[in-house]
Design brief:
Layout: H1 5-14, H2 17-24, H3 30-45, H4 51-68, H5 70-77, E1 80-93, H6 96-108, E2 114-118, E3 122-128, H7 132-138, E4 144-157, H8 168-178, E5 185-189, E6 192-198, H9 199-222
Helix pairs in contact: 1-3, 1-4, 3-4, 5-9
Length: about 230
């Protein structure tokens, strides 16, 4: 059982990827993070703690977290970011009929950009916009739940390490969200992370992800890891 301030702070930060990102990328304010953690630390220890002691513990955790995130930085630094414009999506009810139609569509458009996201009651298709009318005609009007055009896809291709390394995917989502960019859809396929956005947002999103990659590369160079 953790019974020290530093131990509780370390445990809390280890379980919060947003705080880890804030510390690793140095945009988090130590005092602000300490104030956020203070109620949880006091609850865990069943006693009051001084803010100054929490700030000291957060600073010490920074060094520890950077060491733990070396593999994460390597994945980000070596990822390849591609952009695909003119993308559309259609969401349909999940029925045996629509599933059959989707299988036929996948066979027909095997050479095209065509992604399928399957939920409990609905299925979303993300594909090249030039196919929009043809794809929509496959389903009856009553089966279509939602449709959107003028989207773009950012495809982040990473090494196989991303499969078993915690925090990789959210590391790509965080900078996009922090810049108040809405993610329309997202999916992962083996080592690819695909983020669907509005066309007007894709330029900013591409820039922040490129900046993330460049920052990871600089950090890897500082610690002498390729």
């Amino acid at each position: 059982m953790v019974n020290s301030i530093s131990g509780v702070v370390q445990t809390l930060i280890n379980s919060d990827l947003s705080l880890q990102d804030a510390l690793q990328r140095r945009y988090g304010n130590y005092s602000a993070i300490a104030r956020v953690l203070k109620p949880k630390v006091e609850e865990a220890l069943a006693r009051k703690v001084k803010l100054e002691a929490l700030i000291t513990s957060v600073k010490r955790t920074t060094t520890s977290y950077r060491f733990q995130s070396k593999d994460l930085m390597k994945v980000i630094a070596n990822s390849v970011i591609n952009l695909r414009t003119d993308v559309a999506k259609i969401s349909v009810e999940k029925t045996s009929e629509t599933l059959r139609s989707i299988r036929e569509a996948l066979a027909s458009y095997s050479e095209e950009f065509f992604q399928v996201l399957e939920g409990i009651s609905a299925i979303t298709l993300v594909f090249d916009q030039k196919l929009f009318d043809d794809v929509k005609s496959i389903f009856g009007k009553e089966k279509v739940l939602d449709e959107k055009r003028n989207l773009a896809a950012i495809v982040v291709h990473s090494s196989r390490d991303i499969i078993n390394l915690p925090g990789c995917t959210i590391a790509f989502y965080n900078p996009v969200s922090r810049n108040h960019i809405n993610i329309e859809e997202t999916m992962s396929c083996f080592t690819d992370t695909i983020i669907i956005l509005k066309m007007e947002d894709v330029g900013r999103a591409f820039t922040v992800l490129t900046d993330l990659k460049n920052e990871a590369r600089k950090n890897m160079e500082k610690i002498g890891t390729k």
